[in-house]
Input
Amino acid sequence: MKYPEDRFQFTPDLGRRLRQIRIHAGLKQDEVARLMGRTGRSSSSLISRLELGKARYPTFGLIADYLKACGASFSDLGDVLDQYTTGLGEKALAELKRKRRPKKKKPQTIQERVEQVMRSFGSLGKKQRLEDRLYELFKQEGMPRAFGHRKRLAEYGRKVFSALERARQARSVAEDRILADKGIDKDTVERVGKAVAELFEEMERTGALDHKTLVDAGGIVAGRVKRPKLNKAEQRFREDYDRRFRWWQSMRQACIHLAYEDVREPLSKMGVKNPGIYFPLVLTFIGIAEETNDNPDERWKRAGEYIEKARDSKRARWLAEMVFKRYEAYKHNIPAKPDWK
Output
């Protein structure tokens, strides 16, 4: 919306002063509106907004009509207007200075002038190559001969080149940011970028970029159908890992349960009333067996630390032998623990 040239920003202080003038004149808002020549339905609303300081950019003519209807003049607003011009004026000037762009310093030395010229004409070479390619293209058969058509096509070609150049710069910035992560190398980043660029070219060639997914928009709005979700690559990877981990965990737990059952009866025959008190030690020995799968010496070295601490070391050693033997029999049923790869 274009405001009149004589507008100024109204303030609540000015609005309150106008209300005082109207009350002193013994007039109501609708009476002031009629005296101002405003008889529309929204005339009283305008006067109310004006007195509340909510009328944005009212004209001086509107304020003059209000004062005339109340039998007052601008002198009755003098102190408030002075406060307005000094306070708001300084604030507006400070805001203007803040937004104003600093003037570029003119180059003084020969070296500074040389650098300025190099910056100004640094991209001239690639622009000239683009113009040469467009010129050669327009000379080919099947291209428009009208000058106006060629001019518009040339402008389109320059815009395409600029868009590709901006995309290249954005890709470079994104690459620098991800390389800040020390765990990611440049070859991997380039591999991902190349794969995505190839997919984009393929989708552009086949028209897939312009293909829109068909959804039941009416059902979504009515609440009968859920909004489709984007199945992100990292989320799918996480779900795949969780699925493999749960399978490994369930098979491992089944083998642990079998080991519990294998030692329960012998422990009962040894006079142990509650074989369950040894189950934590069984779980510890299974963990040692898993971590030292190909190193028996290390297995018994680590198991010996727990055997020495046990109240009945002889029974603890027997338990370790039993668990290691059962683990070797059951481990082929346990899949390899999934790695986060």
